[in-house]
Each structure stands twice: as C-alpha cells, then as structure tokens.
C-alpha cells in the first residue's frame, strides 16, 4: 500500500478562536502539525503582550500536545511604539494587518491603507525584522477585491524593501504573478483555494460550508495557485486559514465566512499532490518553505499517511460548540497511519 | 400622501410549484397581478395537454381569484409534433426551453442547444406563432453562463426570424445590448436582478435567500438592467422569476436557487421607480410591454399603492409549507392601499 511521510507540517495561517471552540479545534491541528501561525482576530483583538501570552497559554492547554508550537501574531495597529514591539518581538512571528471590516472580527483593522498612515509601525517592524502578514482585499466588488489590492502590495513592497510581507491566503492569478516581482513579497495559500472555485460555492446548490473570504475565484485563478503549490514555489507556504464557525452560523440566513479544514488538511494535500504526481514537493510546500521564509527550525513531527479511504466526520463537537469540516461525510483517498 | 396606481400588473415569469406550495404562493401573485406567465418545470414537467389543463385548474383553484389569468407554458421538447402544438396553441402563451440541469427541475431539458436538433419543434412554433421562452445559460463558470449563451441567442434569432424569442430573467449588460440587435429578441428581468449584485449574496455574510439562477452579477450589469427597466425599454418585460423553496431548503448545507418576491414585487417596484423619478414608465414595464409583445389584452385590475411603510413578514406559511420572502423583516417604503 502506498505511503507518504510529512515532516514537521506547518500551518502558516490558522484561526483557533477561543474558549470552547478553541478547545474543540486546537487539537485538530496540534495532532498532526508541528506548528501553526495563529491569527490574532479575537474579540477584542490581540494587541498587548499580556493578551498575547495569555492566549498562547490557552492554546497550549487546549492542544494538550507539547510537540506543537503556536507561532503568535499581533493585530496590526498604526500606533505601536518601538519600545513595545522591541519588547514583544521574541514572542511573535509577525503582525497581521486587516483592513477594517474585511472579514470575521476585523472591525478594529486599519481604516486606510495609505502608506503614510501605516508608516510609523511598518518602519519599526522593518527595523526589528518583524514580518507583516496582510489580509489583502479592498472593499470593492467581491470578485475583484484581491486583484484591486495588488497595487497596495506593490507600494508596500517598494516603500519597505526590508520588510517581509506575506500576502495571506491568496486566491488569484494576479497574486501568484506578483510573488515573482518583488523580493520581499511572500504568500500563503489555503487548501480550499487549491480545490474550489466560485462554481463550487454557488454554481450548483449554494454551499455555505465553502463560503470563505477571500471568496473562491475562477478556474484560471485556481490553476495558477495549484501550479505554484504543486511546484513548491519557494515563496509560497501552506496556510489553511482553517476558520471554524458553529454549524448554526454556517447554515442560516446570514452565513459566516470560513472553511474548517484542519482535521483533513494533510490527507487532502497528499491526495492532491499524489494526483498530480508532485508528492516530492509536498514537504517543501507544507514545511520547508515556511522555515526558510520565517527563518526558524520546526520541531520534529513525522506523520505517515497511507492510501486508504478516510471518511470525514459529519461534525466535530465539544460541549456546546460544534463545527462542520470541509468534505463532511465524504471520502478522502488518504488516511493518517501514524504520528511520531 | 403620495400614491401611485398600477394597472393590470403582469408577471411574465413565475414559478407557482404545486400542491401545498402552490396553495401558499398562488394567492400572493393573484391578489395583486392581473396575470402571470406560469413556468412548466414541475416534476414531471408540463408536456401534455392533459397535464397543462389540469395544472391550470389547480392554479385557478389555489388563487381563488377569478380576476387573475394564468398564462400557461409547455416545457420544450425536441419532438413535439405539428398536430400536438396546433391543438394546444390556444391554451399556451409560449414554450419554455431549459438546457438540461441548468436550474430547479430542469433535468428533462434539452441536452444540446444545437440548432439542427431544436429545429423541428422551433419551425412548428414559428409557423404557429408560439413564442419561445429561454433559460439562457451555458454550463460554464457561474459568472459567465449567460454571457456565453449570447451567441446561441443570436443563432436562434437569425435561424428563426419569425419566432418570438424571450431571453428570460436576463442578468447581464450583454443581454441588454443584444435586445437592440435582433428584432425578434425580447427579454424579462426580475425584481431582484434590478436590486442586487453578487456582493449582496456573498460580499458580506452569505445570504441564501438571495441565491438565484442566473446568479446576480456585477454592478455594471445591474446598472444596464436597471436603466432598461426604468426607461421601459419596449422589448423588456417584468418577470419576477419568484421561485419559492421551503425555508429548510434555503438555509441548509446545499441551498436551492430562487428568490421569493411575489408578495413584495409591486411595492418594491414602485419604491425603485419612485427613487429614480421614473414612475411614469412603470406601467409600461410591468404591463403594457408584455401585452404588446405577447399580443393580448390584460384584464382590468387596479392596484393603488401609497408611500407608507410596509414591514415584510418573516415567513409565509400554509399547512406544512413555508417560504421566506425577499426583504423578510425589513421595511419597504410603499404599501398596497387598495385593489380593484
């Protein structure tokens, strides 16, 4: 039977939420991943050392797995001081910038992407070598939001040449192309954006569990993303953007954006890379690229997968929380055999 | 207080379903409209004189309003005979063509839009002067399906110059432009496509009650539709495509396509035409154009609306059926004052 080993898988864009939802979803990542970059869009957002360290403690407790590293991020603010960032820099892997209102719990994001407004914090980050993670969408038409953000990425890349800028969860051909244009631009891509287009969300019946931000785009966009991932583009990292919402907030008349992929991510990635005969590139995409880009050494965690059918659960539950995973009740061709 | 009168409103594209759902929704149209063109996509579809007349009887009974005319349509088939169509032609206002699988209950639609395959039936329709109503979408990417269908409309218009072809529920600038290119092309447009874009469905939270086929498009498309409607383009008719599905089929993990607008259509149309100071064109858009295009005289029904707030019900129910209307629990600026 065909097997494949993933070494020290890293999820470089993850939402763990808090309280019971955190307790429900954190082990689904820490079980198979060696580390994950944790998004700071709690309510209120993570903007102080105290809230950051306290959240990290809650994550570690929820994971119940010492063999997992949560890489913490701060929620971007225009008025962080040098003293504050210098003091916190060893506790964080980056700072996440959200345009206000662009996605879940982003109400406190920046109200303007004007470079001069952002400059004070970005200059300090540049000097302290703190990467900038960006949710790159304008407030334009939903299919154009990422494309319209490209000039902003270009301005940032040019204005702060020493700042590492990560275009988070890219969904377009335009973003893939921009990767090769600026040395200091990097990107994450999710599992679901390698798999779906708008047709999967709304081409047949409407599928709220595939509703995410940025929204899934066109076939040519998916092809560009898939091509970059399968070939382990050196500036591209896996970041699931796994974003749990309870079932009642997904199947309702105003459904929240986010796809929950943590428990199936590695199985589906192996299935995908195997289908395109690119398994030799998977460890770079899912681990080595991130270690090189963020300049750290991941802890050892070896996951062995086997080509054996895995039936995805209908729902995951903990106390009063629940979440429906992507591919609920469907079969994946690969299963996890062992984790060391 | 501002008032406005609509004379003999006609809904030239309506889904009434069957059984209890029919009983629930039919009065919501027959109450305010003088007539409606009834879609034949039941299960099984309406393809015989017997099923057509029987459905018409059930509609009349469900309406409980003698002052309402259901204009019946047949479900298009490639093998209708001259004898059959000649015999039924006085009972129908048109024949509705669906590409197979393109929307609700369209599984028995045509599997090919090849002109030669369609020719036998279309030549008979041409000769008997039976209009062709078309759901014009390809099976391509969801945002491109209507645009990709334009060459098919052009081929049909050229191949059958004496056939009246109605492009149903148009959603794009491309379709509006095509109206002026061929004498024998006409169109209906829904209420919701005059109001929403993809942003309303999926730009913020996902709104299953705004999920419809064809899907709502871009702002420039909505502008083109709105411009044509507000100016009562002589080849454009109101057709709500009001398409009820029970709440549990709209708020679930595979939501059905269709917006239920019948009970609010006239109020919202008046609000819209009033906002753009085009009320003088509304009776043409909602009645006179259809009478001229389909060449009939509508029965008298005068609806007086008044500029007074109308709170849209959360849900409409009958026995075990229910349906959530567009703008549920929201306010509309105009109410129905009287119906004569």
From TrEMBL, chains A, B:
Pathway: Pyrimidine metabolism; UMP biosynthesis via de novo pathway; (S)-dihydroorotate from bicarbonate: step 3/3. Binds 2 Zn(2+) ions per subunit. GO terms for biological process: 'de novo' pyrimidine nucleobase biosynthetic process; 'de novo' UMP biosynthetic process. Its cofactor is Zn(2+). Signal peptide: none annotated. The active site is at residue 241. This is Dihydroorotase. Catalyzes the reversible cyclization of carbamoyl aspartate to dihydroorotate. It comes from the Bacteria. Homodimer. PANTHER family: DIHYDROOROTASE. One of its GO terms (cellular component) is cytosol. It comes from Malaciobacter molluscorum LMG 25693. It catalyses: (S)-dihydroorotate + H2O = N-carbamoyl-L-aspartate + H(+). GO terms for molecular function: dihydroorotase activity; zinc ion binding. InterPro entries: Amidohydro-rel, DHOdimr, Dihydroorotase_CS, Metal_Hydrolase. Residues 111-296 form the Amidohydrolase-related domain. The keyword Hydrolase applies. The gene is pyrC. Zn(2+) 2 binds at residues 96, 135, 169. Belongs to the metallo-dependent hydrolases superfamily. DHOase family. Class II DHOase subfamily. The modification N6-carboxylysine is found at residue 96. SUPFAM superfamilies: Metallo-dependent hydrolases (SSF51556).
């Amino acid at each position: 039977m065909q097997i494949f080993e993933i070494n020290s898988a890293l999820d470089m864009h993850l939402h763990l939420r808090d309280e019971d939802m955190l307790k429900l979803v954190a082990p689904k990542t820490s079980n198979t991943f060696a580390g994950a970059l944790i998004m700071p869009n709690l309510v209120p957002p993570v903007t102080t050392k105290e809230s950051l360290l306290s959240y990290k403690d809650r994550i570690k407790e929820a994971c119940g797995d010492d063999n997992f590293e949560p890489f913490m991020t701060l929620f971007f603010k225009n008025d962080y001081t040098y003293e504050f960032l210098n003091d916190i820099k060893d506790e964080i892997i980056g700072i996440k910038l959200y345009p206000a209102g662009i996605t879940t719990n982003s109400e406190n994001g920046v109200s303007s992407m004007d470079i001069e407004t952002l400059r004070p914090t970005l200059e300090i980050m540049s000097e302290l070598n703190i990467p900038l993670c960006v949710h790159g969408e304008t407030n334009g038409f939903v299919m154009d939001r990422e494309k319209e953000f490209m000039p902003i990425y270009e301005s940032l890349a040019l204005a702060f040449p020493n700042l590492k800028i990560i275009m988070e969860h890219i969904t377009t051909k335009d973003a893939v192309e921009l990767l090769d244009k600026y040395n200091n631009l990097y990107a994450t891509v999710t599992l679901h954006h390698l798999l779906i287009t708008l047709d999967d969300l709304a081409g047949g019946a409407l599928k709220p569990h595939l509703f995410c931000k940025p929204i899934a785009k066109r076939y040519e966009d998916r092809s560009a993303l898939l091509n970059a991932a399968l070939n382990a583009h050196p500036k591209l990292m896996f970041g699931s953007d796994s974003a749990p919402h309870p079932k009642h907030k997904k199947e309702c008349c105003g459904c929240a954006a986010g796809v929950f992929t943590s428990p199936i991510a590695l199985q589906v990635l192996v299935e995908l890379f195997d289908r395109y005969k690119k398994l030799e590139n998977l460890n770079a995409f899912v681990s080595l690229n991130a270690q090189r880009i963020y300049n750290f050494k991941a802890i050892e965690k070896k996951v062995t997968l086997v080509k054996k059918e895995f039936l995805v659960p209908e729902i995951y539950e903990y106390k009063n929380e629940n979440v429906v995973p992507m591919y609920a009740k469907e079969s994946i061709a690969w299963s996890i055999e062992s984790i060391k």
